[in-house]
Amino acid sequence: MKIAPLLATDVVEIARHDPQSLREGLAPLHAADLAELLGEIEREDRVTIMQHLAPQQLGETLVHASAETLKLALTRLPIGTIAPALDALEPDDAAALLSYLPEERRAPFLAAMSAGHALAARNLLRYGEQTAGRLMTDKFVRIRATWNVAQTFEHLRHADPSVATVADLYANARISSIMTADVVSVTPETDQGEVARIVAKYGFSALPVVDTSDRIIGVITADDVIDLLVTRETQAALRMGGVSAEEPWSRGVLDYFGTSIFRVVRSRIGWLLLLFVAETFTGSVLRHFEGELAKVVALSFFIPLIIGTGGNAGSQTVSTIIRALALEQVRVR
After folding, report:
1. What is the mean pLDDT of residues 238-244?
2. Which of 90, 228, 221 is nearest to 167 (CA)?
3. Entry pTM
């Protein structure tokens, strides 16, 4: 059951009459639930609530938030409020949030962040949007092949608690006999679609990213791949519907009510005009057989049936072929 609709009214009342108590009152909520809750609240009240959240909770909430809520945060909240929230996130999550801003508008946020976190986010933002580099994090456990099991466990006990995963351990040196010798990895420039296919094929919980010298520089965790798959599914569904993949849809953001009418129209008008022109050919065909239709009027009754059946058959064919292409069951030569 969704808790957001149940809490929205009470939270709004608190935000309007006692906003200082919001931080303590909302602290127990999971970030995903809080993001859903914000989506149920009017824009101005959303801004008030986000201003009073603890930095870590604000950052984690923005990771799960809708495009409209994220836009409000990045445009209405002070940079001094957003920067600590970005500092509390994994570098890949911070970079993902900053990527929604034009490059020239990222600088003030990066300047307000701590030096280490800003550097990590900048390094990820250097990679292309659809590459593995944008998904990886440099917080992982690194061990030496010369260590024994006892030394390894001792190292894990003192490892940074913010590491992304300890399900898999990676070593730069020669792999010992108890470790996997042939490690599947990707480079920062690998396409994100290929990353998703590798994780799905081998069932990895994390995938190492290596540089040209086969030195590990980061890992991509399964949760990032799941987010990527959701984004790709949204993009595929929009393209199948003839909707442009340009902004605001290009990152898989489908916030229908949070998007301006102008952007919605711009994303759809191109294909609608093309289909309108294509439909004029239907009229040309009917005019060509106007004489036959005049002789046998009953034939005109079948025209809607033929057009509808043709459209349905076309939609089914397009859906199956696109899905087969996505799964690489059909390949373009």
Report:
1. 62
2. 221
3. 0.60
